[in-house]
Amino acid sequence: MHAWPASDVPALPGTGRPLRLHDTSTGGPVSVDPGPVARIYVCGITPYDATHMGHAATYNAFDLVQRVWLDTKRQVQYVQNVTDVDDPLLERAAATGEDWVALAERETALFREDMSALRLLPPAHYIGAVEAIPGIVPLVERLRDAGAAYDLDGDVYFSVGSDPHFGEVSGLDTATMRALAAERGGDPERAGKKNPLDPMLWRAAREGEPSWDGGSLGAGRPGWHIECVAIALDHLGMGFDVQGGGSDLAFPHHEMGASHAQVLTGSHPFAKAYVHAGMVALDGEKMSKSRGNLVFVSKLREQGVDPAAIRLALLAHHYRSDWEWTDGGLAEAVERLGRWRAAVSRPDGPAAEGVLAEVREALAHDLDSPRALAAVDAWAAEQTATGGTDTGAPGLLSRLVDALLGVAL
């Protein structure tokens, strides 16, 4: 599966700051200090609807991570999946009468267009669950053969008790885990499971559902969590630098995935840091496909909204915060974009080296994008009020906003 085109990232003078991020598994900030090649896995979409602002906010956050790393002169190995076969996708296809493959392909294509328009850097490896199945089956067989998985009426479940580190990613108690498992795709009430929290690794073929050859597992399709584990282990290996996604993925998805990988490899941890973006609401409720309270990137683009303004509206909120999308917030972003573009259109201006240092410092401290925006705002205000004599300042300001914030002026 191909990703989307990469936009150029301008080179900046000097070197960026070391990155610190909030790690869900420790509950506090950690230094993320990769080697020459930084490794990041961000969980992708289930393509049964268009890209909404919750998606955009999450992928914007991890785009900033990449940009900070690139500014430290590292390479970045970024991997993202597409869950192109799963219950929500099949249910939407059945409800609309559309072929599920065609639905997935159409929405994945629209997602690529949205990501490209927002100038989010593409993954080096963009892998669909379906294409990953040949690598998933042997992992499930290994878990079963090691006694970490068991059969239940043809389905194969992972035993969470096989991982002594289970629970360390989310830090949740059992009752909370059980409630969230029921809410987020699990089946804790199914009779016959060894532990209500045990997740499915392989779903045996059902009539009317797509299935694939699972070798000794029989015909079926993979569970949600093992999909990302297979892709991450294949392209990044154990102990990669950052596992990313929305905060609703900490449990069960990232918790279960970590346990799968740790039992498979006998090593710990799966990822050095688990980093989660907050939720975006509309009219007081978290944006979600099930509720239908969505603002789509593609619809805003169709209405003529500049994607750079959409991105500035996202950057106005700290990535870990839960916040609400409003028309007023978008209007403020449009106005900010206009001010910044007017400021850099002049032939000279106030020195911008200090702005570069402040933006670097802000992003290095847990991606503090509101502080970064404020630094650029202050430069633009000074430019408007008094101007300056540095002929290189507007160009440097424009390059730093592009390179570090992904906004083209």
Explain this structure to me?
By secondary structure, this protein is of the alpha/beta class. It is 43% helix and 16% strand. The protein has 13 helices and 14 strands. The protein has helices spanning 53-71, 87-96, 100-117, 129-145, 174-183, 224-235, 250-265, 297-302, 307-315, 327-344, 353-364, 369-385, 393-405; strands at 19-23, 28-32, 37-42, 75-82, 125-128, 149-152, 155-158, 200-204, 220-222, 240-246, 271-277, 280-282, 285-286, 323-324. Strands 5-4-3-10-11 form a five-stranded parallel sheet, sandwiched between helices. A four-stranded antiparallel sheet has the order 6-7-8-9. A hairpin with a 2-residue loop joins strand 6 (149-152) and strand 7 (155-158). The longest helix has 19 residues, at 53-71. The model has no long low-confidence stretch (mean pLDDT 97).
State Rg: 22 Å
Helix content: 40-55%
How far do the termini sit from each other?
Answer: 31 Å
State the order of secondary-structure elements, H for helix, E for strand: EEEHEHHEHEEHEEHEHEEEHHEHHHH
Please state roughly what percent of the residues sit in beta strands, choosing from under 5%, 5-15%, 15-25%, 25-35%, 35-45% or over 45%. 15-25%
User: What's the shape?
Assistant: globular
Which structural category do the helix and sheet elements fall into? alpha/beta
* Strand neighbour order, sheet with most strands: 5-4-3-10-11
Uncertain spans: none
Largest β-sheet summary:
5 strands, parallel
Number of helices: 13
Strand tally, please?
A: 14
pLDDT averaged residue by residue = 97
